[in-house]
Amino acid sequence: MILATGYTPGDDWLPEPARVDRPRRTLTGLPGLFVAGMPQYGGRGSDTLAGVWKDATTIAQHIINRP
Fold it and tell me: Gene3D superfamilies recorded for this chain (predicted)?
């Protein structure tokens, strides 16, 4: 997991399918790639240290429930 802080979204490093095809919260269009800490990929408040835990919990659940 990469957690960084900044003033603008830094998702330009993500491949195009990951930015466009997002089936659900924290998931990307690329298998095994999750995004936490960015409201456009997660939930409201994801960009705060107090709120990123919700994204982390969602990602952990996705990983646990994978076949």
Answer: FAD/NAD(P)-binding domain
